[in-house]
């Protein structure tokens, strides 16, 4: 799985790497269908025409025929003030461009990212002509060019390429971990069959360092050591071998001011196990998790999530870290975007 975005400025690099892998058969047997590529619309490209062009540019840069999932990265538009109502108009225009590219099979699934509940309800509950149903099964199956085959999406819009509306997004990608558990947003997505995709599940790495504070932000969860003891009593074998055991930016984060780990505790092993707990917590809430790591050993460990299950009481204890007013957001906050 590749999660990229126009603003990450690495689509062309990914495209070149994929081309090399396929042309030189560097991973024998690997085909395009084995790779799931997500990309995202930059805030500067909001609006129907700009979005349409941006998607085609992403497809060109990635050197593929289609993108598996394309998201509106952010509800706002670059250079507009946050309360400007044009933000709302622009993102709806972008959505219509995505719908059209979805029907044209250039995008296999479409969605949004960093939308708050009001942004999402505005999209999902917008008035639609000929709209009969909120059944997302219809929405997700609407790849046929015959409108009669998708009763939830029979409207034809007056957009240049004749886009038809689709009921609701396939995916919503937003920050989600025990210090930022937006239950209302998760519930709404699940009620409308929108797949939640959790990003920064590890708090950008900060939640898996055993420290109370990192800079101004609250980090480790004080029950984590107990959970690690309960679910991973045996030492992990092999998995950390070859990994760089340095936790990112420890000194930059001012961790020397805090007891990071007990003298007999291996910080790399603690981080691996804490990461697995946090990722499993996301999965048990029905989210898809997309942890990032530049280290193969960490990637392997982060995938190993199906050999244990967090008990309901421990799930509740983790959920309880997300108390209103005490939440910690490590990434963007779109609350003020109109
Ligand atoms: N839609 C959006 O606006 C948005 C925003 C943010 C992120 N995202 C997506 O979500 C992905 C993940 O989020 P994220 O990068 O913010 O944060 P994350 O996955 O919570 O944390 C990544 C950090 O944790 C470290 N790490 C990962 N596994 C580890 C392990 N087992 N042991 C020790 N350290 C570990 C990584 O370091 P190393 O790399 O050094 O291993 C990296 O510094 C991103 O790559 C991006 O694709 C989307």
TrEMBL record:
Keywords: NADP, Oxidoreductase. Residues 132-143 have a biased composition (Basic and acidic residues). SUPFAM superfamilies: NAD(P)-linked oxidoreductase. This is NADP-dependent oxidoreductase domain-containing protein. Residues 1-123, 171-321 form the NADP-dependent oxidoreductase domain. GO terms for molecular function: oxidoreductase activity, acting on the CH-OH group of donors, NAD or NADP as acceptor. It comes from Podila minutissima. PANTHER family: 2,5-DIKETO-D-GLUCONIC ACID REDUCTASE, NADP-DEPENDENT OXIDOREDUCTASE DOMAIN-CONTAINING PROTEIN. Residues 131-160 are annotated as: Disordered. It holds the Pfam family Aldo_ket_red. InterPro entries: AKR (IPR020471), NAD(P)_OxRdtase_dom_sf (IPR036812), NADP_OxRdtase_dom (IPR023210). Substrate binds at residue 73. Belongs to the aldo/keto reductase family. The record marks 40 as: Lowers pKa of active site Tyr. The active site is at 8 (proton donor).
């Amino acid at each position: 799985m590749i999660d990229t975005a126009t603003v990450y400025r690495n689509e062309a690099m990914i495209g070149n790497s994929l081309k090399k892998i396929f042309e030189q058969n560097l991973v024998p047997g690997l085909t395009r269908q084995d790779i799931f590529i997500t990309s995202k619309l930059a805030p500067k490209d909001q609006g129907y025409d700009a979005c349409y062009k941006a998607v085609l540019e992403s497809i060109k840069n990635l050197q593929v025929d289609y993108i598996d999932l394309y998201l509106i990265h952010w509800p706002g538009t670059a250079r507009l003030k946050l309360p400007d109502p044009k933000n709302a108009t622009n993102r709806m225009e972008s959505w219509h461009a995505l719908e059209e590219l979805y029907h044209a099979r250039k995008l296999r699934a479409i969605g949004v990212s960093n939308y708050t509940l009001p942004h999402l309800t505005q999209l999902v509950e917008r008035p639609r002509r000929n709209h009969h149903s909120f059944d997302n099964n219809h929405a997700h199956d609407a790849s046929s060019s015959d409108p009669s085959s998708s009763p939830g999406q029979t409207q034809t819009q007056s957009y240049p390429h004749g886009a038809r509306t689709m009921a609701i997004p396939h995916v919503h990608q937003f920050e989600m971990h025990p210090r930022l558990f937006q239950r209302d947003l998760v519930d709404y997505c699940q009620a409308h069959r929108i797949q939640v995709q959790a990003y920064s599940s590890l708090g950008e790495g900060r939640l898996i360092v055993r420290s109370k504070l990192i800079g101004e932000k609250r980090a480790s969860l004080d029950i984590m050591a107990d959970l690690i003891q309960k679910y991973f009593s045996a030492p992990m074998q092999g998995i950390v071998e070859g990994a760089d055991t340095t936790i990112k930016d420890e000194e930059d984060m001012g961790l020397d001011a805090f007891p990071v780990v007990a003298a007999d505790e291996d910080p790399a092993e603690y981080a691996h196990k804490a990461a697995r707990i946090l990722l499993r917590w996301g999965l048990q809430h029905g989210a898809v998790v997309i942890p990032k790591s530049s280290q193969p050993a960490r990637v392997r460990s982060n995938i190993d999530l199906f050999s244990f299950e967090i008990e309901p009481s421990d799930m509740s204890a983790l959920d309880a870290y997300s108390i209103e007013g005490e939440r910690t957001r490590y990434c963007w906050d779109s609350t003020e975007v109109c």
